[in-house]
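anyone else get weird line breaks when pasting these?? whatever heres mine. first is seq + tokens for prot A
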Amino acid sequence: MSETTTKTTWMRRYTTDPGLIDQFIEFLTRQVIPAREARGFIVEQGWVNPEGTQLTWFVSYAGTPEEFAAAEKAWEESEDRAQVFAGAPAYVSAKDLQQARRVF
């Protein structure tokens, strides 16, 4: 991506039971992230709090916020996503999703 290309990034923070955090991370890294990356998303970073109750990760898409929203909607409504989440446990008890802008 060139310096002039617009990139939109969202922070995704999920709260989960600390007993499930490792399983949740494995699910994300083995199934969710590859499926999202195949659709043009870029996972920037992932962090877990010391208590193991919150996972925060940043996902980007080359494009405007509107293009990100369209790609996100297509992902949410896709058969790929439905297959990834079919039969998966309910890892997340709360979530906070918001657009973010890198400042340093």
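and prot B, same format (seq, then tokens)
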Amino acid sequence: MYLAEPSGLISLALFLIAVALITLLAGSFWLSCRMRTRAPRLPRAEEQPRMPQGGPVREMREVREAAEVPKVAKGQHALTPYELTHMSTRTSASQKRERWHDGGSGSFGSGGLGHH
């Protein structure tokens, strides 16, 4: 019987929760305004990047090949990935692009038997 009676504590708790939510929203609004005023200003039109004197930069295409992976002598420890960093590439002697084999899609998971 006591559970069914209206209680002032429930309405007080709901009021305090509402006040806490409003305070939280107002505080987040104040904090975002404060952060926005501290942020650097947007660049003006004269500060925007300009096109180079020689015109737009063009893409350069070339075939590159990787440097050989260092060989490990028998009995030495295998190289770990951090020992293989900064592997450079060089321009290939042949600039002919490799193409897929005739009759092959060139992708994995195509469902076919692959190139034979």
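btw re prot B: DSSP finds one helix and two strands in the chain. The mean pLDDT is 82.
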